[in-house]
């Protein structure tokens, strides 16, 4: 497997509870390197663009409101098979279904307030990284 980059967000429920370090410890413990990171307050426009694929879903409004409710930490993670690897480390979308040791099992509150985002494919990873980072902000 090749070295890949994936896009991660530490979501408002986690930043609010001071869990940025705890989440990063799980990420780094899994062998993924944090090659870019910044704490931002997402605008409504950024959140709507980011989750545009879900705009017809009943939870879209709630999801956007949640993502702008508190600061988030956006990151680029790099490593062997990083996209699939980070999805494993995150755990299932609904923390009730997440495996022990995953970020969502250990820290998420609900299917909506589920602590982290991770890209689901190489194409989406590239688009998501470019939405939040300039090339010179990523230091591999
Ligand atoms: P994931 O974040 O695991 O990639 P997704 O892409 O299906 O999951 O959904 C994006 C986010 O939308 C998810 O992290 C939380 C929210 N969401 C998904 N399904 C939901 C539901 N049934 N109720 C409330 N929020 C939901
Ligand atoms: Mg998704």
TrEMBL record:
Its cofactor is Mg(2+). Its EC number is 2.7.4.6. Residues 3-140 form the Nucleoside diphosphate kinase-like domain. It comes from the Bacteria. It catalyses: a 2'-deoxyribonucleoside 5'-diphosphate + ATP = a 2'-deoxyribonucleoside 5'-triphosphate + ADP; a ribonucleoside 5'-diphosphate + ATP = a ribonucleoside 5'-triphosphate + ADP. The active site is at residue 117. SUPFAM superfamilies: Nucleoside diphosphate kinase, NDK (SSF54919). GO terms for molecular function: ATP binding; metal ion binding; nucleoside diphosphate kinase activity. It is found in: Cytoplasm. ATP binds at residues 11, 59, 87, 93, 104, 114. CDD domains: NDPk_I. Keywords: ATP-binding, Cytoplasm, Kinase, Magnesium, Metal-binding, Nucleotide metabolism, Nucleotide-binding, Phosphoprotein, Transferase. GO terms for biological process: CTP biosynthetic process; GTP biosynthetic process; UTP biosynthetic process. Pfam families: NDK (PF00334). One of its GO terms (cellular component) is cytoplasm. The keyword Oxidoreductase does not apply. Major role in the synthesis of nucleoside triphosphates other than ATP. The ATP gamma phosphate is transferred to the NDP beta phosphate via a ping-pong mechanism, using a phosphorylated active-site intermediate. Homotetramer. Belongs to the NDK family. This is Nucleoside diphosphate kinase.
């Amino acid at each position: 497997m090749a070295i890949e980059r994936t896009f991660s967000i530490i979501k408002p429920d986690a930043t609010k509870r001071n869990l940025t370090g705890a989440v990063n410890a799980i990420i780094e413990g899994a062998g993924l390197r944090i090659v870019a990171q910044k704490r931002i307050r997402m605008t409504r426009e950024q959140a709507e663009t980011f989750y545009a694929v879900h705009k017809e879903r009943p939870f879209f409004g709630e999801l956007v409101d949640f993502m702008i409710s508190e600061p988030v930490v956006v990151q680029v993670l790099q490593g062997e098979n990083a996209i699939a690897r980070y999805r494993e480390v995150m755990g299932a979308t609904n923390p009730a279904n997440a495996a022990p040791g995953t970020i969502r099992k250990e820290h998420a509150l609900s299917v909506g307030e589920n602590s982290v985002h991770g890209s689901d494919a190489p194409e989406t990873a590239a688009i998501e990284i470019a939405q939040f980072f300039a090339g010179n902000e990523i230091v591999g």
